[in-house]
Design goal:
This protein is of the alpha/beta class. The protein has two domains: 127 residues, Rossmann fold (3-Layer(aba) Sandwich); 191 residues, Rossmann fold (3-Layer(aba) Sandwich), CATH 3.40.50. It is built from twelve helices and 13 strands. The strands form two sheets. The protein has a seven-stranded parallel β-sheet, sandwiched between helices. The protein has a six-stranded mixed β-sheet with strand order 2-1-3-4-5-13. α1 packs parallel to α12 and α4 packs across α6. The longest helix has 19 residues. The relative contact order is 0.14. Pfam families: 2-Hacid_dh, 2-Hacid_dh_C. Belongs to the D-isomer specific 2-hydroxyacid dehydrogenase family.
């Protein structure tokens, strides 16, 4: 059984190959799975996708016609997959149910600290032997308020770190976390969280109800000197509204590891090309905005766990089982005699 893996990063490839060695063959491609590349999966029963692949109805149709029967997504998010179409076509779909929450939570804090203390600007100056401190003043986190939107495993890990800094904790989620409550977190509505927080960090999946959760109205409620961090999904923030907010001189800083239109841009070298995304180009011009390329999950520990979970999902499918990562189970076997 050969598995075709799309969107494989250079550092990820040896981990994938080692995990599948002795079990299944795996062919790793660095190209994304989309309408232009779907035909390359012809003859492959199982494909493995990443979160920036585009598995819309048309792509899934091409995969199914080419013989694909199972999609193993190497991510927890799956908003890039048309699950209804997968069901219609009889395609099994599985994702990674969970992996190290510390990878994303710690990176979110890396962004928060770097934005607050102007680390990138400071390093740029010192590389030019400019050692002045003008414009580099930050704030203590101790005693200030952290607003955690989404208190699942990653949000809870983020809150533990905030508690270690001695911060007041506000949370917003449909389900409360006993651990966050034990840390002293107060659960409040979104409006109050945005209004009272010095730091707002997003830890939610991208769903229809969370799309543009941070819109113009939410941004208007935030303090002028607040810092906003997003290491979850780009679509949680209305990027055009964020640009307008920053243009008016509001918000002390923003750290973005994700962007709504990142597909086809993040993970690629676009340095010799004209940036045609005007919103992203504008965001990059603000000195108080730090953008990274969807790397919060990218630790040795997390990548190994993601790949190991992907292998389990493949094994479950081949054994006729469903697991905690199954999104669309295999279609029922036909009745005897049919």
């Amino acid at each position: 059984m050969e598995i075709l893996a799309y969107g494989v990063l250079a550092d990820e490839r040896p981990v994938i190959e080692a995990a599948f060695a002795g079990r299944h063959g795996v062919r790793c491609l660095d190209v994304l799975l989309n309408r232009d590349t779907a035909a390359t999966a012809a003859g492959c029963r199982i494909v493995s996708s990443n979160v920036n692949d585009v598995l819309d109805a048309r792509v899934l149709q091409v995969l199914a016609e080419g013989g694909t029967r199972m999609i193993a997504q190497r991510a927890t998010g799956y908003n890039n997959i048309d699950l209804d179409q997968a069901r219609r076509l009889g395609l099994t779909v599985a994702r990674v149910a969970d992996y190290s929450p510390y990878s994303v939570a710690e990176f979110a804090w890396a962004l928060a600290l770097a934005v607050n203390r102007r680390v990138v600007r400071a390093v740029g100056r010192t590389r030019e032997f400019d050692f002045r401190l003008n414009g580099l003043m930050g704030r203590d986190w101790h005693g200030r308020t952290a607003g955690v939107v989404g208190t699942g495993r990653i949000g809870t890990a983020f809150a533990r770190i905030a508690h270690g800094f001695g911060m007041r904790l506000l949370g917003h989620d449909a389900v409360t976390s006993p651990e966050c409550l034990a840390l002293g977190m107060e659960y409040v509505d979104r409006d109050r969280l945005f209004a009272e927080s010095d730091l707002v960090s997003l830890h939610l999946p991208l769903l229809p109800e969370t799309h543009h959760l941070v819109d113009a109205a939410a941004l208007a409620r935030m303090r002028d000197d607040a810092i906003l961090i997003n290491s979850s999904r780009g679509g949680l923030i209305d990027a055009e509204a964020l640009v307008e907010t920053l243009r008016r001189g509001r918000l002390d800083g923003v750290g973005l590891d994700v962007y709504e239109e990142e597909t086809g841009v993040f993970y690629f070298d676009r340095s010799l090309e004209v940036m045609t995304d005007d919103v992203l180009a504008r965001l990059m011009t603000f000195r108080n905005v730090l953008v990274t390329s969807h790397q919060a999950y990218f630790t040795v520990d997390a990548v190994r766990q993601i790949v190991e979970a992907t292998v389990r999902n493949v094994d479950d499918y081949l054994a006729g089982r469903t697991g905690d990562g199954t999104l669309v189970p295999p279609p029922p076997a036909p009745a005897p005699g049919r």
